[in-house]
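Each field is listed here:
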Amino acid sequence: METRQGFLDSEPLREADEDLVSEVNLNNSIMTEEEREEIQQELAKLEEEINTLRQVLSSKEKQHAELKQKLGITPLSELKNNFSRGWHDMQSSTAYKKTSETLSTAGQKTTAAFSTLGTAITRKFGDMRNSPSFKSFEEKVETTVSTIKTKVGGTATGGSFEEVLSSAANASSQDTPTNNLTDSSERPC
C-alpha cells in the first residue's frame, strides 16, 4: 500500500531529489488533470487558512492593545519597563559584576599609584631644594637681585629666596607702561 503525503508533509530533499526537480519541465503535461485539480484545491485551502490566521492574529492584536490600554500601559511606559528590566538583567550578569569589580580594583590601584607618585615628586623637589646645586643657584639669584636693587637705587636686603622672588615680583608689578625713563625722541629707530 502506498500512502500519499501532502506537499507540506515532505522529508528534506536529498541531492538526487534536487537533480530530479531541476530536470522537471513544468510546461510538460506529465501531470494528469486530476492531479492538477487536487494541487489547486490544496493551494486554495492553504491560502484560505493563511487568511483565516491573519484575521485571527489581527483580532488578537486588537484585543491585546485594548487590554494594555485598560491597564494604562503606554508604549513609553512599556519601553521604560523593558529598558529597566534589561538594565537590571545586565547588572546582575556575571560578566557585568566581574567587569565592575575589575574596574573598581583598577581605580583603587590607579589612585594609590598617583598618590605615591605625588609623594615621590614632592620628596624629590624637597631633596632637590636641599641639594648643594640648588643652594648655589639660590645664592647666585639672591646676589644678583641684591646687586640689581643696589644699582637701581633700592637698598639691598638679604633674605630668603622666597623673599627675593616676592620683592622682584612686586617690583615688576609696579612698573607700568607710563614709567618709561627715556624720552621717545631719544629712542633708536
